[in-house]
TrEMBL record:
Molecular function via GO: acyltransferase activity, transferring groups other than amino-acyl groups
Source superkingdom: Eukaryota
InterPro entries in UniProt: Thiolase, Thiolase-like, Thiolase_C, Thiolase_CS, Thiolase_N
Annotated keywords: Acyltransferase, Transferase
Organism lineage: Eukaryota, Discoba, Heterolobosea, Tetramitia, Eutetramitia
Transmembrane segments: none
Family: Belongs to the thiolase-like superfamily. Thiolase family.
Key word Cell membrane present: no
Domain Thiolase C-terminal, first and last residues per copy: 267-386
Residue stretches making up the Thiolase N-terminal domain: 6-256
Residues annotated as the enzyme's active site: C93 (acyl-thioester intermediate), H344 (proton acceptor), C374 (proton acceptor)
Name of the protein in question: Uncharacterized protein
Length: 392
């Protein structure tokens, strides 16, 4: 095994709360939530925090309670030594997956041997777009946000979701069936205990929160089908076909082969390949297609060799346009449900999905797993991992 291979040693996430004032995590400050996750991942991996060489935190709205370099504030709150540095990054929905890439690249290059990638987003406290200097338009016209001209209309992601539904010939019925199935899979996974090992329970006012609040036990399929378009009059995307506004946090502990040997750390997954791409800022959400093509080309691993795919359910049309392009069986995609069911705490979702992916590969004894996320403004990220406990 090469010394500069990078391994996921452990990964953990909070339960995901509804991003409203009645949400299960609403009364927790973002710094406090992230500090609990940072403590949790090091305690579970039996790693002394003094060994951590950097903490990189993804935040999509780095403002107010989530500003002022929340990575550094949270690691101090968690009791890490002052010698541990931290920084926050913002690549919108891909923020904490980018944090995984950055820590992984630093380890691979030899700049460090052990670091934490993490993410936090408390959308009930810091609303979406709190750091923005413009409001995304629901009109596709050249003078949208003309006072903030970047050469493209700065449109709402919901409008883009409608555009790609039509571009890839995805029907409203297909998307409704996909959304319903997401809830069913997430509820079944919850009741079967598939999330137990990955979720760190959070105690709030004496009450232990250990499940994702947004997952529905009872699904009113007729109501879902009666919902009107949410973003454009002739659109297909409804509220039920979009990810939920949510609160949550997650962390991924990564280490070099040398550090794993030195500290006797359990190698759970190996980072095989990482890619980031830019794409059209109007269609924006189908960037996961070129990202997937690029990572398959760079890694030499075929789609058929991959056991589990986590494709972020920003909108139902996003996953379905990807699935139609690559013809991957739906049973392999988001097998425990996705953001339509459990929610999408933007900056945290990259580490949340990676936590789900690592645990699911181990549960089903799959070898390779692929995670990809679309990003507002026209970007996408993809990460390919290998399960270290895989048995043929």
């Amino acid at each position: 095994m090469r010394g500069r291979d990078v391994f996921i040693v452990d990964c953990i996430r909070s339960p995901i709360g509804v991003g409203k004032k009645n949400g299960s995590l609403h009364n927790v400050h973002p710094v406090n939530l992230l500090s609990e996750i940072l403590k949790g991942v090091t305690v579970r991996a039996n790693v002394d925090p003094s060994e951590v060489e950097d903490v990189i935190c993804g935040v999509s709205s780095p403002a107010k309670e989530q500003g002022s370099n929340i990575a550094r504030l949270s690691l101090l709150k968690a009791g890490f030594p002052c010698s541990v540095p931290g920084v926050q990054v913002n690549r919108k929905c891909g923020s904490s997956q980018t944090a995984i890439h950055l820590i992984s690249q630093a380890i691979s290059s030899g700049d460090m041997d052990l670091g934490i990638a993490c993410g936090v987003e408390m959308m009930s406290i810091v609303p979406l777009g709190s750091d923005a200097s413009y409001k995304p338009s629901l009109e596709l016209k050249s003078d949208a946000n003309i006072l903030f001209d970047v050469g493209y209309p700065l449109i709402h992601q919901g409008l883009s979701a409608d555009i790609i539904a039509k571009k890839y010939n995805i029907s409203k019925q297909e998307m409704e069936e996909f959304a319903i199935e997401s809830h069913k899979k997430a509820y079944l996974s919850t009741t079967n205990g598939h999330f137990n090992k990955q979720v760190l329970p959070i105690k709030i006012d004496g009450i232990l929160i250990n499940t994702d609040q947004g997952i529905r036990k009872e699904i009113d399929e007729d109501k879902i089908k009666r919902l009107k378009p949410a973003f454009s009059k002739d659109g297909l995307i409804t509220a039920a076909l979009a990810s939920q506004i949510s609160d949550g946090s997650a962390a991924v502990l990564l280490a070099s082969h040398t550090k794993c040997q030195q500290l006797n750390l359990n190698k759970r997954a190996r980072i095989v390949c990482r890619v980031t791409v830019g794409t059209d800022p109007i269609t924006m959400l189908d960037g996961i297609i070129p990202a997937t093509k690029k990572i398959i080309e760079k890694s030499g691993i075929s789609l058929d060799e991959i056991s589990v795919f986590e494709v972020n359910e920003a909108f139902a049309s996003v996953v379905l346009c990807w699935q139609k392009t690559f013809n991957v069986p739906l049973i392999k995609i988001n097998p425990n449900g996705g953001a339509i069911a459990h929610g999408h705490p933007l900056g945290a979702s990259g580490c949340i999905l990676m936590t789900k992916l690592v645990h699911e590969l181990e549960r089903v004894n799959g070898r390779f797993g692929l995670q990809t996320m679309c990003i507002g403004q026209g970007q996408a990220v993809a990460t390919l991992i290998e399960n270290c406990s895989y048995k043929m």
